[in-house]
Write a structure and sequence with these properties.
heterodimer; A: ATP Synthase, domain 1; 2 domains; 5-stranded mixed sheet; 45% strand; B: alpha/beta; Helix Hairpins; Pyruvate Kinase, Chain: A, domain 1; two-stranded antiparallel sheet; 7 helices; ion transport (chain B); membrane (chain B)
Chain lengths: 134, 296
């Protein structure tokens, strides 16, 4: 029996996933990091990107998250995501539409607040497209 | 004394009222189930966010560089109250109790010489508060609950507004008022301080039991806090909205249940009255006929 760590993926509206996994790769703000069982405790913010769940040395599941935070301790890895969609469910045209919308918003943004929001949306859309292309 | 026809039409009208209230009760019951599920599903996120923030808050402490959302603006002059009510009435004391709690708090703050500002989420709250505090209402939101329940985006809309006001220095302390869902027949009007952030007991408990490990932070504690605190505002507001909506449907369900029962009682009473007076009328007619026959 291989060692496992518990992955908990929580979005504001639901507990999406709570299951033991062998390894999970999380897109941290300062770079991707892999979480194996008995990982030392840490808290990191997440950039928009893809969480890779590994089983048997291969990627078994890929989930897109639009940013959030991850808390890792030796027993579990908790990811608080604002938005989480399996990569398989992402649609290229929707991501493209989102990108265009965000670009338009960024152009139209007048206040710093609107601008920051639009920039974030743009980043999320880009990450979605990137997730789809590889 | 009411005529038989009057009684009949009254019974008919109470019956149709009972039909309406019992239909509303059933609608509320099914909505309650959904709202309750949503509220329960959202709890893990809010809880974990709370413990994580609590841990971070203790780590950063009251350092110089602590974000404003945690440390506060250093003043206590302007209070913002966010009041969550329903858009619709007919739900017992639901709206009244939350409005009352908010009004008491606002009055107490004003008596202390503080300025009060209000954000009303839900039409009923704004309607009830606008007479007394019309000038202090800075924003109002209605139609939060759509067809598919409550969306996180509407919560972040309110959250963004609160944060924008805070950034502009429009207020110093923010408190939210909502009905916490306990059960279908019990909702508790709750006030919760949102800004500055108050750590949950969970983090302290953990420390007491000695299970809190030393965490690595990536990037720094401050950066994570600066990222998490605004998000927490949205999450707390979302949680309050869900609790409030579950409470609303619960309150409406029990109010409509009462109304249905009362209507049933009333129908029983009216039917007895109707039957009695009909009987009396028949007896009267018989007496008239018999005494008429005897007189012949």
């Amino acid at each position: 029996m291989t060692d496992t760590t518990v992955l908990e993926l929580v979005s504001p509206s639901a507990l999406l996933k709570s299951e033991p996994v062998e390894m999970v790769v999380v897109p941290g703000t300062d770079g991707n990091f892999g979480v194996l069982p008995k990982h030392s405790p840490m808290i990191s913010t997440i950039r928009p990107g893809v969480i890779d769940i590994y089983a048997g040395g291969k990627v078994s599941e890929r989930i897109f998250v639009a940013g959030g935070v991850a808390e890792v301790n030796p027993e579990r890895c908790t990811i608080l995501a604002e938005e989480a969609v399996p990569v398989a469910d992402l649609k290229a045209d929707e991501a493209q539409a989102r990108l265009e919308q965000a670009t338009a918003d960024l152009k139209a943004a007048s206040t710093a607040h609107d601008k920051a929001n639009a920039e974030r949306a743009l980043e999320i859309a880009r990450a979605q497209i990137a997730a789809l292309t590889n | 004394m009411a005529s038989l026809k009057d009684l009949r039409s009254r019974i008919a009208s109470v019956k149709s009222t009972r039909k309406i209230t019992s239909a509303m009760k059933m609608v509320a019951a099914s909505k309650l189930r959904r709202a309750q599920d949503a509220a329960e599903a959202a709890r893990p996120y809010a809880e974990r966010m709370g413990t994580m923030l609590g841990r971070l808050a203790t780590a950063v402490g009251s350092n110089e560089g602590a974000p404003k959302l945690l440390a506060g603006s250093g003043k206590d002059n302007v209070h913002l109250l966010v009041v969550f009510t329903a858009d619709r009435g007919l739900c017992g004391g639901f709206n009244a109790s939350i409005v009352k709690a908010a009004r008491l708090k606002a009055k107490a703050l004003q008596a202390e010489g503080k300025t009060v500002k209000l954000i009303c989420v839900g039409r009923k709250g704004a309607d009830a508060l606008k007479r007394e505090f019309g000038d202090s209402i800075v924003a109002r939101y209605t139609g939060i609950e759509g067809k598919k329940g409550i969306d996180f985006s509407s919560a972040s809309e309110v959250g963004d507004k609160v944060l924008a006001l805070y950034d502009e220095g429009e207020f110093d302390v923010c408190t939210i008022f909502y009905n916490k869902f306990v059960s279908a027949i019990s909702q508790v009007a709750t006030a919760q301080q949102l800004i500055p952030f108050v750590g949950e007991e969970a983090a302290e408990q953990e420390e007491a039991t000695g299970s809190s490990a030393v965490y690595d932070y990536e990037p720094s504690e401050e950066a994570i806090l600066a990222d998490l605190l605004p998000r927490n505002v949205g999450v707390q507001i979302f949680g309050a909205m869900l609790e409030s909506s579950a409470s609303e449907h619960g309150a409406r369900m029990s109010a409509m249940d009462n109304a249905t029962r009362n209507a049933g009682d009333m129908i029983d009473r009216l039917s007895i009255q109707y039957n009695r007076s009909r009987q009396a009328q028949i007896t009267n007619e018989l007496i008239e006929i018999i005494s008429g026959a005897e007189a012949l």
